[in-house]
Design brief:
Elements (H helix, E strand, L loop, with lengths): L2 H11 L4 H8 L3 H8 L7 H11 L3 H4 L9 H11 L3 H25 L1
Helix pairs in contact: 1-3, 2-3
């Protein structure tokens, strides 16, 4: 998927018109339309603004990852990264255990 396709998909999911997204990031709806049609490529500054407006990571917007990180997920990751190593390892181990449990339950349900 191109940057333009991601912008269009996310914009529609948020229920925004091209004009509304343009106003949020400080440009026109016509320019947003040109980004979405891949007629022009947004600058990195515009990509940052669009990602913020659509509440996704830059990596997702540019197609580097398929994982959508919402603001809450990013906040959790930032908070975990600030923990002392012992606490960070504890939290990550809890996450690993929960994921393993989920995968086992899913495998047995199949």
């Amino acid at each position: 998927m191109t940057i333009g396709e991601h912008i269009m998909l996310l914009r529609k999911q948020k229920g925004l018109s091209q004009t509304e997204l343009g106003k949020i990031i400080g440009t026109s709806g016509d320019v947003i339309g040109r980004y979405e049609r891949d007629v022009i490529t947004p600058s990195i500054d515009v990509i940052v603004n669009v990602a913020d407006a659509l509440e996704v990571s830059i990596d997702f917007l540019v197609g580097k990852t398929k994982m959508v990180l919402d603001k809450q997920a990013v906040k959790w990751l930032e908070d975990i990264s600030k923990l002392p190593d012992d606490n960070k390892n504890f939290v990550l181990n809890l996450i690993d255990m929960a994921l393993r449990d989920f995968k086992v339950k899913k495998a047995h349900a199949s």
